[in-house]
Design brief:
The complex is a heterodimer.
Chain A lengths: L4 H29 L3 H20 L8 H18 L6 H13 L18 H6 L2 H28 L4 H9 L7 H15 L17 H39 L2 H9 L3 H39 L4 H11 L2 H29 L1 H4 L6
Chain B lengths: L7 H8 L3 H23 L2 H9 L16 H4 L8 E4 L5 E8 L2 E12 L7 E9 L6 E7 L5 E7 L5 E5 L4 H15 L9 H6 L13 E11 L5 E9 L15 H37 L1 H16 L2 H12 L3 H10 L6 H13 L2 H8 L4 H37 L10 H10 L2 H4 L2 H29 L1 H5 L1
Antiparallel strand pairs in B: 1-9, 2-3, 3-8, 4-7, 4-9, 5-6, 5-8
Helix pairs in contact in B: 2-7, 2-16, 7-8, 7-10, 7-11, 7-13, 7-16, 11-13, 12-13, 13-14, 13-16, 14-16
Classes of the chains: A mainly alpha, B alpha+beta.
């Protein structure tokens, strides 16, 4: 059976991206272990917990100090073996690598999930949808604004709106989270019309519709902050793209032939400009995963980013490592999805042409 | 984007023709001047120490708004007022009573503000042998009523007595004020409110304007004892930028933060761009295995979650700000721009003059350093300038995540402290907005210059 060229390219890319994720995960583990430094923290944590458990247990009240110390030592050793901390570092790092890749990241040191679990996987996975919800919404809105705004301005270039966009494009040097701070000051501290952060009202509404509206209300400010931050530069870049493509010879030829303007726009300008626009959008989405961390912290949005900020506060290394790995997966997945879309819009990739 | 023909000097000349770039340059000159001022008058290493020393700022008001706030507000906030020894309108009279020296000081001042001071502090310098002096403080309002602010006995040579924290006095004055008003108001009567208030039937309390007098009666129990005092009324406005919850004047923090922000952004951006250019040149020029190694590295770098990585490293190794900068550089040198630059290098490699250089036997290093890098530099300059703000904001972002260097004063750290201090909820807007304005100024300055540069080196954009 002959595999279609697009599928072949995609399988190759998926394999390659997964390899990259493995490398990044291993790097994360190497850094996080800092030559066994984390192990030391974990062992001292185990010692502390075991000692507490023993002294709190009435069963051991009658033991002499020596017996009790022996018991603590034995329990600590058991715990170390249980967690695989007694193996040499290269092997241990491979165990960690496998654990990292399968998101089997063990228990957090201090943090708990909403359901009270200390499994890192649960802590992370219950946060993931919130992050995806917020930032996918924001980036899709920005993409659409950029596309249609850019198209509109390229049609009316030199107009007042066009010049205004160019003059206001420096505002995009300020990141979304920063606009977030300003928006909170205006709409919460000063006007008291919108919540300063969080995802739903407290207590959360029972009805699904009310719940949905409450989430929507909490999303306004973070999404607005991101949209403001990219608004002018997205339109400006897309407009420049469209203008560049609209001066191509084949567009002139089509005009001379008498092709109607709407058709020129769709077939001769938008179509070839789409792949580079999608590439820049891909970078924007990938960047958004990093930007998410600070935005979520500013808006107290219960996603991965704020969890990372909290893990920093608690010095909770397993959670920090876990989130780093999940972000690597997210970036790889985003890249892969965009490559599929790219394959659909770019005929060269669809045909399996190499070396672009 | 094609490799442009411009030289760096030509670009600069062209740049001066853009008004927006001139505005950007003017802001940049201001920021550089501020940085130089900061570095010359306060050595960088000391600034952080001074900033963190809480005892140093006791003479400043807490949470004061900037002085220019009064221009925009109908309700005039008071600045700090200092009266007493060595200041105008200070009179003293000495008498003997029951064999002891009794000194009566009279200090008066005019108060023309609507709001109340935030705190009252009695600063006393005294030397005594035996029993410490007794200090009685009386307060005479413009209406002529006299309030007793109770008696104090300073035990140290130099003592600060926080009159406004005296709870017993507060209760007494509250009772007195309620008696005067004839009803219990819905606002709390603190000591500054009671001392300055106008007795009104309703509404928010306002200050009584006019001449106030403070009478201090000091009894010294020994001939050789000395005594001097000052009364500090902490205001609600201070300086150009106000103060924070720890009484630190923010203007100092803003000045000290300028060199940090500028050097962080510029060093990061310039170093990263240059290293990326060199890798791109090597990758594009040599090709083969070197090329594919560098290309694979850039692909790994694409997957690295940048901020989580920095956070992990910074938290595990406790990095100071310059090591953090180094990590940021290391995590960016194989960024996606390497791919873009590499394409330009490959275009140049086939250009006649490079082929000529190869033909006459120039070494590879010579060709890269003298013929390729200088040619791809001009088109890179706009993105270099445009990326400076992103590193300035990255530092601020990391500060907001709680990863700031405690020894360094940076704008991001001031914003983080404002958040931690509840500025957003308590309405200390200046604490957030003024450092934010500095960050915005920096960003806009580089963006204006960068976008103008972009139009210069990419003529296709200019035509439109």
């Amino acid at each position: 059976m002959r595999i279609p060229p697009l599928a072949k390219v995609l399988i190759k890319r998926a394999f390659f991206l997964f390899l990259m994720v493995i490398i990044v995960t291993y790097l994360t583990i190497l850094i996080a272990n800092a030559g066994g430094y984390v192990d030391e923290i974990m062992i001292s944590d185990i010692k502390f917990n075991v000692a507490q458990r023993v002294s709190a247990n009435p069963l051991y009240k009658g033991l002499s100090i020596e017996e009790r110390n022996k018991l603590i030592e034995r329990l600590v050793e058991d715990e170390i073996r249980l967690r695989g901390l007694d193996k040499p570092f290269p092997i241990r790092s491979l165990i960690y690598l496998w654990n990292g890749l399968t998101l089997d990241l063990g228990r957090s040191m201090y943090m708990t999930s909403d359901t009270g679990s200390r499994l890192v996987r649960l802590i992370i996975l219950e946060r993931l949808p919130q992050t995806i919800l917020l930032f996918t919404t924001a980036t899709v809105i920005i993409f659409l604004i950029g596309l249609f705004g850019g198209l509109y301005l390229s049609r009316n270039f030199g107009s007042f709106l066009d010049k205004l966009t160019i003059y206001l494009s420096p505002t995009s040097a300020i990141p979304g989270w920063f606009y977030g701070i300003l928006l909170i000051l205006i709409f919460y501290s000063y006007l008291h019309v919108l919540p300063p952060g969080g995802m739903v009202d407290y207590p959360p509404p029972e009805e699904p519709v009310a719940y949905f509206l409450s989430v929507l209300k909490h999303m306004i400010l973070p999404v607005a902050a991101w949209v403001i931050s990219s608004f002018f530069i997205e339109i400006y870049y897309n407009r420049s793209f469209f203008l560049t493509y609209s001066t191509e010879d084949y567009v002139e030829a089509a005009k001379a032939k008498g092709v109607p303007p709407s058709q020129i726009e769709r077939r001769y300008i938008l179509r070839p400009a789409l792949p580079p626009i999608i590439t820049s959008f891909a970078f924007a989405v990938v960047l958004s995963w990093s930007g998410a961390i600070i935005t979520e912290t500013v808006f107290n949005w219960p996603g991965l980013g704020r969890t990372l900020a909290m893990a920093i506060g608690f010095f909770d290394v397993p959670v920090i490592v876990g989130i780093t790995v999940v972000f690597a997966y997210l970036i790889a997945a985003t890249t892969f999805i965009l490559e599929i879309i790219y394959g659909i819009v770019d005929p060269r990739i669809r045909a399996g042409v190499e070396g672009i | 984007m094609s490799v442009s023909e411009y030289t760096l000097k030509g670009i600069f000349k062209e740049l001066m023709r853009y008004k927006s770039a001139l505005v950007g340059l003017a802001i940049l000159v201001f920021l550089v001047a501020l940085s130089l001022y900061a570095l010359i008058f306060t050595p960088y290493a000391q600034a952080g120490e001074i900033w963190n020393d809480q005892n140093r700022w006791l003479a400043y008001p807490r949470n004061a708004a900037p002085e220019w706030y009064n221009f925009f507000s109908s309700k005039k906030l008071p600045p700090s007022i200092l009266i007493g020894e060595g200041l105008p309108n200070h009179k003293s009279e000495e008498a003997e009573r029951e064999g002891y020296r009794v000194i009566t000081y009279l200090d008066s001042f005019t108060y023309n503000y609507d709001d109340f001071p935030s705190e009252l502090v009695l600063l006393i310098n005294t030397t005594y042998s035996g029993s410490p002096p007794t200090v009685k403080v009386y307060w005479i309002k413009p209406s002529g009523e006299e309030l007793n602010l109770s008696a104090y006995r300073p035990r140290n040579i130099s003592e600060s007595i926080y009159i406004s924290n005296n709870l017993i006095l507060e209760r007494d004055l509250e009772e007195y004020a309620i008696d005067k008003l004839g009803f219990t108001p819905n606002y709390t009567i603190t000591i500054p409110v009671a001392l300055f208030m106008e007795y009104k039937d309703k509404g928010e309390p306002t200050a009584m304007k006019g001449n106030y007098t403070v009478r201090v009666e000091v009894t010294l129990y020994n001939r050789s004892d000395t005594f001097s005092y000052r009364l500090l009324m902490h205001g609600k406005v201070y300086g150009i930028a106000g103060t924070d919850i720890y009484r630190r004047p923010l203007e100092l923090g803003l000045i000290w933060g300028a060199p940090v922000a500028l050097s962080f952004g510029i060093v990061a951006s310039v170093t990263i761009t240059f290293v990326q250019l060199i890798f791109a040149a090597i990758s594009g020029y040599y090709g083969g295995k070197t090329d594919s190694l560098i290309q694979r590295l850039t692909e790994i770098y694409m997957i690295i979650p940048f901020v989580p990585f920095i956070v992990t490293i910074s938290i595990l190794y406790g990095l100071d700000i310059w090591r953090l900068l180094l990590i940021i550089i290391v995590l960016s040198i194989f960024g996606t721009s390497v791919k873009t630059y590499r394409v330009w290098v490959m275009q140049l490699k086939t250009s006649p003059y490079v082929e000529a250089a190869i033909a006459y036997g120039a070494s590879n290093l010579r060709i890269i350093a003298l013929y390729i890098l200088p040619r791809i530099l001009p088109p890179v300059v706009p993105s270099l300038v445009l990326s400076i703000p992103s590193y300035v904001f990255l530092e601020a972002a990391l500060a907001i995540l709680g990863l700031s260097d405690p020894k360094v004063v940076s704008w991001g750290r001031i914003i983080e402290e404002a958040f931690a201090g509840g500025a957003v909820y308590k309405g200390y807007y200046h604490w957030v907005l003024i450092p934010s304005a500095m960050l915005i100024l920096t960003a806009i300055s580089f963006a204006l210059i960068g976008l103008a540069l972009d139009r210069i080196v990419n003529p296709r954009l200019r035509e439109m």
